[in-house]
Amino acid sequence: MSKRKFEVQENESIDDCLNRMKQLGYTPVRRTEKPIFQEVIKGNETIYEPVGREIVFEAVLIK
């Protein structure tokens, strides 16, 4: 079974990514999502603010 990971690109919707996977002959089996943080320094305090997320689909080749 051939597995491959597909990351949702910056200017791409989740549907666009799923369509791209389908065109290449893959079907999603797992979705992982990680937050992306930005370090902000206010005075002598460091704060981490969420600025986005990274979405990755794990997919297998359709037989």
List the helices and strands and how they pair.
Layout: E1 3-7, H1 14-23, E2 26-42, E3 45-61
Antiparallel strand pairs: 1-3, 2-3
Architecture overview:
This protein has one domain (3-61). Helix content is 16%, strand content 62%. It has one helix and three strands. The protein has one helix at 14-23; strands at 3-7, 26-42, 45-61. Strands 1-3-2 form a three-stranded antiparallel β-sheet, covered by helices on one side. The termini are close together.
Summarize the structure.
A hairpin with a 2-residue loop joins β2 (26-42) and β3 (45-61).
Query: What number of structural domains do the residues give?
Result: 1
| Strand order, sheet with most strands | 1-3-2
Helix content: 10-25%
Number of strands: 3
Using the alpha-carbon principal axes, give the shape: elongated
Mean pLDDT: 94
The DSSP helix count reads: 1
Distance between the termini: 9 Å
- Percent of residues in beta strands: over 45%
Order of helices and strands: EHEE
Largest sheet features? 3 strands, antiparallel
